[in-house]
Amino acid sequence: MDVYRTSFLEFEDFPETSEPVWILGKEYNALTERDEILSDVTSRLWFTYRKNFPPIGGTGPTSDTGWGCMLRCGQMILGEALVCRHVGRDWRWARGQKQREEYISILNAFIDKKDSYYSIHQIAQMGVGEGKPIGQWYGPNTVAQVLKKLAVFDTWSRLVVHVAMDNTVVIEEISECSGLLLSPCVLTGELNGCLEGACALAEEETALWKPLVLLIPLRLGLSDINEAYIETLKQCFMLPQSLGVIGGKPNSAHYFIGYVGEELIYLDPHTTQPAVDPCEDGQVPDETYHCQHPPCRMHICELDPSIAAGFFCRTEDEFDDWCMRIRRLSCNRGGLPMFELVDSQPSHMVSVDALNLTPDFSDSDRLERFFDSEDEEFEILSL
Description:
This protein is of the alpha+beta class. Helix content is 27%, strand content 17%. The chain contains ten helices and 13 strands. α2 (69-86) runs antiparallel to α3. The longest helix is centred in the first third of the chain and has 18 residues, at 69-86. Strands 1, 2, 4, 6, 7, 8, 9, 11 and 12 form a nine-stranded mixed sheet that branches. Strands 3-10 form a two-stranded parallel ribbon. A two-stranded parallel sheet has the order 5-13. The protein has helices at residues 34-43, 69-86, 101-108, 120-128, 140-151, 171-179, 184-188, 230-238, 316-331, 364-371; strands spanning 20-23, 26-29, 50-51, 160-163, 168-170, 212-219, 242-249, 252-260, 263-267, 273-274, 296-299, 306-313, 340-342. Cysteine protease that plays a key role in autophagy by mediating both proteolytic activation and delipidation of ATG8 family proteins. This is Cysteine protease. It comes from Sander lucioperca. One of its GO terms (molecular function) is cysteine-type endopeptidase activity.
């Protein structure tokens, strides 16, 4: 389906309701701020199926239609982190305007070619190390682990991607990986040579903290979402650190960015568009990377229970604020906590080091058991 030929009327208009609309930590009034809502949604990076890109691995598929929807959702949640990191949550996209160099660099990190940091090529090939053949469907856990590994090589953004396992966020682990480890480029002030024009090091980035992307794979029920988690899930979209949620329903992965009433608001990757090549001057034709129709919605009870929630903390103060908000939410009686926040690792938990989660790990059988328990709930879409 060509996005340019898609009729605006094919998409259900945004509801006129007095209930608040929450989009990634921002609250809107649907009656008086409709344009602001649509501008916010349109400004999120929208990664969809693509076709006619260079073969993955040199001889593999040239399209991810039918199998890449969760990979694209992983790109979207990480893309939101990069937007927050480099241009800020309040940045807005407008068709035809001259774009900031940082924004162009973000897009280049996701272009469908083998040497882009977070391309479909990199995600698919990195997944092979986890026992996922190219062309196989991923679950939320798998894509979170792959993004963690790929972020190690992104010397421009210098993010730490931490994946919290066993429904538990361990503050001590995050302090170790984000608060104490400095990459060589931080110490020397070097930037990735292929990303010219990037902004200079911000003052806070010279301190002992690397911007944190926190991904929390969760299972909120057996075959259906446990309604006790619904209010807590909604509250996650209200946090200023929210990156949204990746998940969906059987046969279909989505990137959830907010809610209104009992409906989740999401971006849908199930549109096949031609691959995009950067222009000779380095600019990227970007209209197909932004969803320019009202966002999709689904009832929250339709959500498959296997999800991964994401949060971005640029500074240590933002992480401390996130911890405070999570502890406050856990004291509320409006819902069941989706995960536990603890200071140090409980004795019953498996050590991250024991899983050998380094950029070149190969113990795929063990990882399959820990990270892919949700995959049997999803099926590959028909081509």
